[in-house]
Design a protein that fits this description.
This protein is α+β, with helices and mostly antiparallel strands and 150 residues long. It has helices spanning 14-29, 35-47, 98-113, 127-135, and strands spanning 4-8, 53-59, 62-74, 79-89, 117-120. β4 (79-89), α3 (98-113) and β5 form a beta-alpha-beta unit. α1 crosses α2. The radius of gyration is 15 Å and the shape is globular. This is N-acetyltransferase domain-containing protein.
């Protein structure tokens, strides 16, 4: 039986988190990220908790994945939505319940903090992830996302 734990990220996790983000961006969008910029971005979250927080999953003592949670204020609900971002599970640990464990940890933390809901983005073609999110009780929203980079 595998030993799976989820813990808050520490500064020593910065390089792994940055590397996992590079891998995730390439796997999902064939997008090449700048590792130096990304490493500074990870450090900015670790140094300033109001931006959010990272969780790291360890399977049998080995770090195998992470996710970032950020906050979005909702005036309609007078509370924060917690957004899952930068979700990554190492290929050798996939289908072992790693994301589900991280999701459960975030859901627990969000409830304790009084958040009003959980949200995430998912690639339109990623049917496996969409199925997992539905199985966890999430529902597809009716919004499209638009973006303009500055």
């Amino acid at each position: 039986m595998s030993n799976l734990i989820v813990r808050p990220a520490e500064r020593g996790d910065r390089a792994s988190i940055a590397e996992w983000n590079v891998a995730m961006a390439w796997e999902t969008e064939q997008k090449q990220l700048n590792l130096e910029v990304l490493t500074r971005g990870v450090a900015a979250v670790l140094d300033e908790p109001k931006r959010g927080f990272y969780l790291v999953a360890e399977l049998d003592g080995q770090a195998v994945g992470c996710l970032l949670v950020t906050y979005e204020w909702s005036d309609w609900r007078n509370g924060d939505f917690w957004w899952f971002q930068s979700v990554y599970v190492a290929p050798e640990a996939r289908r072992a319940g790693v994301f589900r464990a991280m999701y459960a940890d975030v859901a627990r933390r969000a409830k304790e903090a009084g958040a009003v809901g959980l949200r995430l983005y998912v690639e339109t073609e990623n049917a496996r992830a969409q199925r997992t999110y539905r199985e966890l009780g999430m529902e597809q929203c009716h919004y499209f996302m638009y973006e303009q980079m500055l």
